[in-house]
Please model this.
Amino acid sequence: MLRGIKLDEKKSMSFKDEIVDFSVPNRVYVPLINANIECECTVKKGRKVRKGSIIGIRKDIDFPILSPVSGTVLGTKKCMYLNGKEVECVVIVNDKNEKVIKKKLVKDITSYTKDEFVELLKKCSVTGMGGGDFPTYLKYQKKLDILIVNAVECEPYITADAMLVKLKSEAILESINAIMKINKIKKCFIAYEKNNKIIEDSFLEYIDNYKNIVLYPVKDMYPMGWGRYVVKSVLGLEYDKYPSEIGVVVNNVSTIFAIYKVLKFQRNITKRIITITGEGFTEPVNVLVKIGTNMSTIIKKLGKYKEEEELKLIAGGPMMGVSLPSDNVVVSSNLGAITIIPDTFDEINDCMSCGRCLNVCPVNICPIFILNNIKDVEKLKKLHPEKCIECGACSYICPSKIGLRDAVKIAKKKVDKK
Amino acid sequence: MKFKVENGPHVKSEETTSKIMTRFLISLTPIVCFAIFKNCLLNYYYSSVTFIEAIHPMLMIISAVLTSFISELLYFKFILKDTWENSFYEINRSFTIIPGLLLALVLPPNTPIWLVIFGAFISNILGKMLFGGFGQNIFNPALLGYLFISVSYSSLMGSPLNAYEIDTLAGATPLSNLSNLNYYGTYEEVVGSFGTFLNFFVGTIPGTLGETSKMLIIISFIYLIATKTIKWRIPVMYILTAFIMTLIIGHNIELGIWYALFSILSGGLLFGAVFMATDPVTSPITPIGQTFYGISLGILTIVLRFLTPYPEGVMTSILFMNMLVPLFDKIGLYFKENIKKIWILIILFIALIILSVTTISNNIKNLNNENASNPLDNKVKIVKKEKKDNETIYSVTSKAWGIIKADVKVVDGKIENISITDSSGETQWNEIEKNDYINKIIERQDDIDNVDAISGSTYTSDGLKNIVKKIIESELEDEG
Model:
């Protein structure tokens, strides 16, 4: 059984017909981090770089960080990353010439072999754009049978993926087709939330040309976009650690579009769509930005904060996003939204033992028991806090407004240590 | 611009503790209204009670609620040394009137006001505040208050019958009537004395203030489930278990489905299952725990009803099971991880049900077979018999609630005097004295079968009547 919560989606707020193009920043700050692992800087101050030049490297798997602009390296600087921490970033002055290392245009994007494909994904630094930031090439190393495209944008407020699908559905389908041919994948499912008619209609326009790609509406629920849930509701299957164990690969729809660019132009993705939204902001909209842009410069140009109330600025959606002290956050490929909402004061009461947190937990653990036994590591082990995916459904549903997710996070660390 | 930094999630559900408790109170309103309608308005209309007597049940509810409110307020102010402002704020968060209200609803309509106040005080202070306040208590506060006053002042609790019911009904609640019949009787005897099942459903039968109208309780139950206010598994499993068990018992003693229906529609079963057993604080959190908690409540209640002299059993079961809540949560956690082993639990509970159902059925059969051979021999024993001329003194013991011991003086075959030597086992003895019942049965000894029992103390009345019957029997034998 899939457990979760029903949320007020509030997506219409930011969904406009057009996106606003802010993709020519004066400077970019490219965070030297991949999947929360710090990377090393490989360029020195004053070095001229082009789009696609290697500026950093993740040592353990030899995974490159590439420049999104052409220009001059100014050095490194600590900037705020989407998790609220200061991360070393390469500062590049944009010369706005958009020069690339090697100009290329591939006509038939299905003409790659599997090895070439995997090599290209690595060379072009493709990572999961849904939030995980996991290097995508790792997912394609095994033999695969089924591709699931995750277009389930289950966080409220955010419409970045929906916007991308609306604008680029044809390219996305083309990309899926190429991935399937290259990897000899027999079947593809595009999973999206049942009530998201924009995604459905955008794909329906072109999907008739592709026999093996199926649109698959899933339950309109949070956290339906979680990989395991997508696989479970589409295929009815479960897996231990990675979906590749059962021959399945799950990619976010933005990642699929990034792969399209990679296959077509053989270079890295340099822009992405970000939703700037929330009741605390005057002009909720989707914007197109360069990786490494400082969000504050864009927000300043775009609109104003509603300063009558105390506001929270969240990198990502309100459920899993992290609230930040300022808007000086740099864009990374896994940042999907900036949500600005008024701070709501929640009065915390004693637990009334209603059991709602157990009923909504997608990984079927017992948040309230974990909180009650937070000091006893032996008991904690039996309650399996390590299963938690930090979706926050327990904290959301709690009528006493107890911070259950925080407690489970602490318990997770305690159990990990032992 | 500076933003507030806080741990997520940054949106929270609209549901709050106070909304849940408010919905709980809303669901109780129709029941309170019906209690006042039945016990105040109907009583005033159909009998000759005074206005003050008629509004007595209403005063019970008001005084219970006020006591809860005031005692908790004073506790915050004087024991916890809060400011007045803070104390008001705190009692607002601790849903202070619920224990008092629930207590009033499980009391018979004739309970003295001072006892209600005492009970409500115990409920809130002993049952809740001394445990650490809302969310910390182990026992359902209202039930703890109920237990306290029913144990210490059982004789003062008052009859469950209203003035107009005393005139028309056999003089007992449906459940005590059933237990007087040794749990066996025809539909006419068991249900018919109180009307039809429609009376049970609407609520025009004797009982405590809140428990009688099953229809309203069911409506409230649906409302509470639809709004996700209570843990639905507990009442559903509780009632289902009780129903299935009495269905099998009924089948074993060759009675129809009505017997099971009677069991769940009489007494406080529905009220207790819906409003008391589901108290979130004092019930299990895990779904599996809740399911088996409900089943255990059903088993325990039926066992208490049929195997002990207490005809009700609901309140006692819930209070007892409150203690085992942590155990049921442990069971729930264990079987959540080992769901494949759940059949062990299922088999265990089925065995438990079969065991108790067989014991109960056999017990009912034995009780009624004894009665068939000679009912009186088992109940009244002549210990000593002294004859002097035309005068005989009998020393007898009679099974009533406890054992009554008496010396009976017979002159010329007529009972002249009954002197009770021991009535300590009888909790409702004061009712006997109040009604001058002993003289009544002496006066009407030739017509003893038609002397009514005193409502609220039927066991004792029957015990006394049996003495008269036995003596007459014995005198007839002597003559013959």
Notes: The beta strands of chain B are 380-388, 391-399, 403-411, 414-422. The CA atoms of residues 129 and 229 of chain B lie 23 Å apart. Residues 15-168 of chain B form one domain. Chain B touches chain A through 37 residues (CB under 8 Å).
